[in-house]
Specification:
This protein has 290 residues and is α/β, with parallel strands linked by helices. The chain has one domain: Rossmann fold. It has 13 helices and seven strands. The strands form two sheets. It has a five-stranded parallel sheet, sandwiched between helices. Strands 6-7 form a two-stranded antiparallel ribbon.
């Protein structure tokens, strides 16, 4: 009897040990990334046009990541061609091939006027690209662009460009369950705070150095889910053992732009989480008795 009892106890002990081992493995899998995995880069693919390749925006964002030793480094690639929109990219073999390589995030930037003037076209291109991104195991992030400098001529032709442009990006984010990097919100906040701030290049459309820096701060915050506070005003990247400057802005301005970027990210997050307003149903005209 004692022998059988001992065998049963030994068998139970083995089962308990196996359960403990499985539980221990589950706990280890749930732990934060190890030091080794922290060195694994976040892979980000940028797709767009001159708003994306101007001032080497992808490299600028990667430079900000490199300046923050508490986050994973960033590996970036870009497929961008001047003036092209999302529909063009959705039919471009090079774009689709790049997406298929697999990325953590794929950032989609539409032509600057299309979301405001032809939102249906923006969504059509976005659907194709988003499907390809998700098939490759990545996450879609829309690059909400800014309105062109609000000159009297622009305001006369497009009085509500910012509103319509941002509404399209937020709508696409909701419909496709994708993230939206609210660069347009950040630009408007920065411009409203100081209209003399040199965000725009001379063409009143493309970014100057300060505008590119602000855009990069938004992407840094979106990808790492943290404010860009404390990032250097002068962004560098190491190449062949040498540091090269990607872009720099006055330190005083950098300190002002960083919290603006974070406020924009928080605002967009709340809007994406909120339920879209529903239009009241139209009342049918009552028929009068003849």
């Amino acid at each position: 009897m004692n022998t059988r009892r001992n065998h049963r106890l030994a068998h139970c002990a083995m089962i308990v040990a196996a359960i403990v081992t499985i539980a221990s493995s589950a706990v280890q899998a749930a732990k934060p990334a190890s030091k080794t995995s922290k060195k694994t880069p976040v892979r980000v693919l940028f797709i767009g046009n001159s708003y994306t390749y101007g001032h080497k925006l992808p490299q600028l964002v990667a430079g900000m990541a490199a300046a923050d030793k508490s986050v994973r480094p960033m590996e970036v690639k870009m497929v961008a061609s001047g003036g092209k929109d999302l529909v063009w990219h959705a039919n471009n073999k090079a774009t689709l091939s790049a997406i298929a390589a697999g990325w953590d995030y794929v950032i989609l930037q539409d032509q600057s006027l299309t979301p405001a003037l032809m939102p249906h076209r923006s969504l059509a291109g976005a659907r194709v690209l988003d499907a390809a991104i998700k098939k490759a195991g990545g996450k879609t992030m829309f690059f909400m662009t800014w309105q062109r400098r609000p000159t009297p001529d622009l305001l006369k032709r497009f009085p509500d460009m910012h509103k319509r442009n941002s509404a399209t990006y937020i709508s696409m984010g909701r419909k496709l369950k994708a993230a939206v990097a609210p660069v347009g919100y950040a630009w408007k906040m920065a411009y409203d705070e100081d209209p003399k701030r040199p965000l725009y290049a001379r063409d009143n459309s493309h970014p100057a150095h300060m505008g590119a820096y602000l855009s990069a701060c938004v992407f840094y915050s979106m990808i790492y889910n943290k404010p860009p506070t404390g990032l250097p005003a002068r962004i560098t990247l190491s190449k062949s053992g040498r540091n090269r400057v990607v872009l720099g802005v006055p330190p005083a301005e950098a300190k002002k732009l960083q919290p603006i970027a974070w406020r924009a990210v928080q605002q967009a997050g709340k809007e994406l989480a909120a339920k879209p307003a529903t239009r009241p149903a139209k009342k049918k005209p009552s028929r009068r008795a003849k």
